[in-house]
Amino acid sequence: MKKIKNNIIAVFLVLTLFFIASVSMAQTQAPPPPGHGNQATTVVPAGGGAPIGEGLIFLIGLVAFYGSKKIYGLRKKLAE
Prior knowledge:
It is built from 2 helices and no strands. The chain is an all-alpha fold.
């Protein structure tokens, strides 16, 4: 049983490292600074165009999971 647990942990660590490496290499190249290559002035949007959509979806998912876990625990405790 201990050998199976160690194998599962090893597989999980290898997969985690693989996905971290693939995500870190998939980053896009940063845009050039404003005014690079042209004479016209460019307007930078408020906030610098920071992408918040992906992190916000992930955060909402975690909050929903945590809330459902708490509700499940409370209902289980009340049923006893």
